[in-house]
Specification:
Order of helices and strands: HEEHHEHHHEEHEEEEEEEEHEEH
Number of helices: 9
Helix content: 25-40%
Strand order of the largest sheet: 1-2-6-7-10-13-14-15
Bound molecules: adenosine monophosphate, magnesium ion
Structural class: alpha+beta
CATH superfamily of the domain at 78-152: ApbE-like superfamily
Shape: globular
Low-confidence stretches: 6-11
Strand content: 15-25%
Mean pLDDT: 93
CATH topology of the domain at 78-152: T-fold
CATH architecture of the domain at 78-152: Orthogonal Bundle
Length: 314
């Protein structure tokens, strides 16, 4: 590189300043950190990124009866859906196939039933559970990639993409920032984080993972942490997680926290949720088949890592 080019590069990076903003979306706080050349550029970037997240919340929320996702309850006739919803459902279907249904975006009837359980502090009856299980299951969902459509086999099915939507929204917010010329940014939505280039002059964004004592520098990647101890419900001395075992319809009762590092937020988010259900042994065997993905899992007794995690452990 010529000395002139070096000087230009140095001037460009030395004028970048860090900015940070937080907004509530998707039932949590989204925090964005970025490096921009001016406050004006940063403000424009925050506005565009947060409005992309808000738009995805409107499309993907299963808490809003009027969202596009909530309105897809179609049986028999396939319904055309937006590119955003189709992208999330396709990833959900892929994850379901890869995990033998441990991760499943058709658990809406069950997740809604468990939300009611937490509100009313009463376990669901076997009849209600059976009914919700009959209206769930990714094998009863049919996607058509040619026309971006969805169709269900059973009436009363409901989608819930809460296990991947935040990671996807973080990816999409980063894409908006990149388009606006912001190269170094971090988007964090509680346990789901995604980042573009490292902060100027650094190796990466310094990310803390519960199971590790030291922070790890990451760039152009994503990290998600998912735990069965969040939002749980206690009954008769048993703790039920907000993450559902699709085979039984019950909230998980295992003590487990999973963190996944992947190239994209949608993958890190979905995989971290899936590992809760798969457990350490099956979960890590699966992670080891995925290029560029690493995971660490803490159970009550021990902490275990995928083979690919060693480069972060030190
Ligand atoms: P996360 O916090 O990313 O692990 O996602 C948890 C959310 O994913 C729950 O609140 C549900 O909306 C949804 N969910 C629960 N169980 C499952 C499952 N087995 N597969 C896919 N999504 C699930
Ligand atoms: Mg998740």
């Amino acid at each position: 590189m010529s000395s002139n080019a070096t000087l230009v590069l140095f001037l460009a990076s030395s004028t970048l300043q860090p900015y940070e903003a937080v907004e509530p979306h998707m039932g949590t706080l989204f925090r964005i950190k970025l490096y921009a050349a001016s406050e004006q550029q940063a403000k424009r970037a925050f506005q565009a990124a947060f409005s992309r997240i808000a738009q995805l919340d409107e499309t993907l929320s299963d808490y809003r009866a009027e969202s596009e996702l909530s309105r897809v309850t179609t049986v028999a006739t396939p319904v055309h859906v937006s590119d955003n919803l189709f992208a999330v459902l396709s990833k959900g279907e892929w994850l379901a196939e890869q995990t033998d249904g441990a991760f499943d975006v058709t658990l809406g009837p069950l997740t809604h039933l468990w939300r009611q359980t937490r509100r009313e502090r009463r376990l669901p009856s076997p009849e209600l559970l059976k009914n919700a299980l009959e209206r769930s299951g990714f094998r009863k969902m049919h996607l058509d990639a040619a026309i971006h459509s969805v169709r269900f086999d059973a009436p009363g099915m409901q989608l819930d993409v809460g296990g991947i939507a935040k990671g996807y929204a973080a990816d999409e917010a980063l894409a908006v920032l990149t388009k606006l010329g912001i190269r170094s940014a971090l988007v964090a939505a509680s346990g789901d984080l995604a980042f573009s280039d490292a902060p100027p002059g650094e190796k990466g964004w310094k990310i803390g993972i519960d199971a590790l004592e030291h922070a790890i520098p990451l760039a152009n990647a994503a990290v998600s942490t998912s735990g069965s101890s969040e939002q749980n419900f206690m009954a008769n001395g048993v703790r039920y997680s907000h993450i559902i075992d699709p085979k039984t319809g019950l909230g998980l009762t295992t003590n487990i926290t999973t963190s996944v590092i992947a190239p994209h937020g949608i993958d890190a988010d979905g995989l971290a949720t899936a590992l809760n259900v798969l457990g350490p042994e099956r979960g890590l065997a699966f992670i080891d088949t995925l290029p560029g993905v690493a995971a660490i899992i803490a159970t009550g007794e021990k902490v275990v890592e995928s083979a690919s995690f060693h480069r972060f452990s030190r």
